[in-house]
Amino acid sequence: MSKKDDFSSLNISKETTARLQEQYPTIMALATTPPEEVVRRCEISSTSAARAVNQARKLIGMAEPITAAELFERKLAKPRITTSSQQLDEILGGGITVGAITEFSGAFATGKTQLAFQLCINVQQPQEMGGLDGKALFIDTENTFAPSRVAEMSYSFTDDPKAFLQNIYVSRAYNADHQIQIVEKADKIIQKNNVRLVIVDSMASHFRAEFPGKDNLPRRQQMLMAHAETLQRLTESYELAVYTTNQILSNPDSIFTGTSSLEPALGFAWGHRPTHRILLRKSRGTTRIARIFDSPELAEREAVFHITPQGIRDGPPLDY
Ligand code: GTP
Ligand code: MG
User: Fold this and answer.
1) Arithmetic mean of pLDDT, 144-166
2) Which residues are bridge partners to 201 per DSSP?
3) Which of 83, 88, 105, 113 to mutate to test the pocket of ligand 1 (most atoms within 8 A of CB)?
4) Cβ distance 289 to 280 under 8 Å?
């Protein structure tokens, strides 16, 4: 165990340590969590939680700023998961990155879920093949996870799709509260199984259905912000990628898309959270167009890809 994962180097009681480790299996996870959440989840006093979190932050080296040069190095070193489309990878700076939330929005059948399936396979590949040698956690809010389709996509790599399916954990989320709970309780499964990709497909459906109208907006925003915070913490604690999908709304005065009147649902409370936001739209047949419209480091560019029987690819399917 590295010093950074050794809870005994924190100066706290054995009982508190046990409670902390039950919820946060690594020092990094503890260090990146707001103390109030630690109080709630571990049922310890606010003084103990603050002390534990502060010590964890020191141990991890979070208490001091780093130079921009070092940050640049760290960002360059961040591994990525290929989408299986070179064009799409290119506009994403090499693929879906760890340490960030990447959101794909689009109308129905634009390929959001198909890309999620493809990433669940690709994350399992070794790094030289565009993967992270890790597993996936798929949080399915719309009951659209299709093992048979994932198996079909995996035949490009194996004769034994079961081996791929075995490395994808699927959690069906039945409502917004359940969705939040699954993410809050994900630390252990992630750490124990080397999960490097968390998918929430879709982020929007339960929240929009359960909190309609203006009266419900404050509560919805509050829940969404806390949910997003937990997802962001997971990306940083476990060096994993979060891929979320979102529905789109029609807005005649869109500030997101300029001339287009389509924008992702869930408004500002969620909108500020994903690091990279991409809009998908349909073109002819199996062709789809992806456009990055909000990212601090990626230019606004478009990529064309196809949904083929084998999965996401640059070119059209052979039988098309
Ligand atoms: P919503 O969840 O409804 O908002 O849509 P989505 O963006 O998640 O769409 P999805 O990823 O499910 O993409 C649907 C598209 O993928 C459709 O155009 C289908 O034709 C295509 N597709 C779905 N399943 C298969 C399949 O098994 N083989 C092939 N070749 N294409 C498929
Ligand atoms: Mg879908």
Assistant:
1) 96
2) 140
3) 113
4) yes
Q: Quick check: CB of 307 below 6 Å from ligand 1?
A: yes
**Residue-wise DSSP of 152-199:** HHHTTT-S-HHHHHTTEEEEE--SHHHHHHHHHT-HHHHHHHTEEEEE
The CB of 141 under 6 Å from ligand 1? The reply is: no
Ligand approaching nearest to the C-alpha of 278: 1
Q: Residue of the nearest CA to atom 21 in ligand 1?
A: 307
Q: Name the average pLDDT for the chain.
A: 92
Distance from C-alpha of 278 to C-alpha of 272, rounded to nearest angstrom: 13
pLDDT tens column, 18-44 = 999 999 989 999 999 999 999 999 999
Query: Hey, what domains does the chain have and what are their CATH numbers?
Result: 3-59 (1.10.150), 72-314 (3.40.50.300)
Q: Which two tokens stand for residue 282?
A: 């349909």
Residue nearest to atom 27 of ligand 1 (CA): 149
With residues binned 3-state (H G I as helix, E B as strand, rest as coil), the percentages for the chain, rounded to 5, are 40, 20, 40
The structure tokens listed for 248 are 């789109």
Contact 99, 115 (CB under 8 A): no
